[in-house]
Design brief:
This protein is an alpha/beta fold and 288 residues long. 43% of the residues lie in helices and 15% in strands. Bound molecules: NADPH dihydro-nicotinamide-adenine-dinucleotide phosphate (NDP). The site of NADPH dihydro-nicotinamide-adenine-dinucleotide phosphate has 25 residues, from helix 11.
Length: 288
């Protein structure tokens, strides 16, 4: 058996198409152009590529996008002032602080994320939005796990009643993914680096989500035949090849469905950022 391949570009295109028509409606009916500001501190090359991709995606669907480039040695106060200006700027509906921050600001990351207006927090990392998700009041949701859920829904894969096993418990992927699946009535197990006998747990999964940052870590022996495997990992090997956390070639022979890397859930992350920006407009202007 060979698994159904869940191609990110197909689902991302569907999502973008529907956001594009929402953006057109916002302009035509309400005279509003959604606006997204991305703050980038320093010259991290990978971050620059991500930010350029986000800017391009906004332009493609008619969202106004502003890249705020700040110098590597920016002070805490300068960064907080910039966030405050964007919070108060009526042309900006969504604010994203590109991570990682330079070394001298890293330990205060939580403080900067908390400074963003929760109603403009299109990354879904503000403690208010994290808390809302935890108590089942979904507001602005973290883009990567939200993208995984959207993909499952668009692929018409049942979530309710299924045993979902998530490997990885980070604040940006594993934990929000667990809450999103729980809210959709999955039975959820979260695994991490201290989990004992991981394969015995992953083999129980109807839906297996892997987000650990270890190339080709999940092998076919760890997967139940027919399971849906969502690979969030993005790892660059010494030969520059990009691979996920799942050994795609092996696992596709046992899984029922699987996301590839590259070309899987990564493509939905940006689509969900656009979706969150439109949602932020609607929240701010009380539009249904
Ligand atoms: P983190 O490093 O923040 O967290 C990794 C998690 O994996 C931790 O909870 C850790 O456990 C767990 N872990 C590590 N090793 C093992 C192991 N051997 N067995 C079981 N659990 C393990 O990573 P992120 O969540 O930020 O990212 C994970 C991956 O997803 C990365 O490859 C990243 O590049 C990718 N990513 C992709 C995105 C996309 O758009 N597609 C967006 C964000 C991330 P513990 O808590 O015990 O240390």
């Amino acid at each position: 058996m060979s698994a159904r391949i869940l191609e990110g570009k197909i689902f991302a295109a569907q999502i973008k198409e529907s956001i594009k028509s929402e953006v057109e409606n916002l302009m035509e009916i309400h005279g509003i152009t959604p606006g997204l500001a991305v703050i980038i501190v320093g010259e991290n090359p990978a971050s620059k590529v991500y930010v350029a991709n986000k800017h391009k995606a906004c332009e493609e669907i008619g969202i106004y996008s502003e890249v705020v480039q700040m110098p590597e040695m920016v002070t805490q106060e300068e960064l907080l002032t910039q966030i405050k200006l964007l919070n108060e700027n009526p042309a900006i509906d969504g604010i994203l602080l590109q991570l990682p921050l330079p070394e001298h600001l890293k330990h205060d990351e939580a403080k900067f994320l908390k400074a963003i207006d929760p109603d403009k927090d299109v990354d879904g990392f503000h403690p208010v939005n994290v808390g809302k998700l935890a108590i089942g009041q979904e507001h602005l949701l973290p883009c990567t796990p939200y993208g995984c859920i959207k993909m499952l829904e668009l692929a018409q894969i049942d979530i309710a009643g299924k045993h979902a096993v998530i490997v990885g418990r980070s604040n940006i992927v594993g934990k929000p993914m667990a809450n999103l699946l729980l809210a959709r009535n999955s039975t959820v197990t979260i695994c991490h680096s201290r989990t004992v006998d991981l394969p015995s747990i992953t083999r129980q999964a109807d839906i297996l989500v892997v987000a650990i940052g270890k190339p080709n870590f999940v092998t076919k022996e760890m997967v139940k035949p027919g399971a849906v495997v969502i690979d969030v990992g993005i790892n660059r090997l010494a030969d520059k090849k990009l691979v996920g956390d799942v050994d795609f070639e092996q696992v596709k022979e046992v899984a029922g469905a699987i996301t590839p890397v590259p070309g899987g859930v990564g493509l939905l992350t940006i689509a969900m950022l656009l979706s969150n920006t439109v949602k932020a407009v609607k929240l701010r202007h009380n539009i249904q």
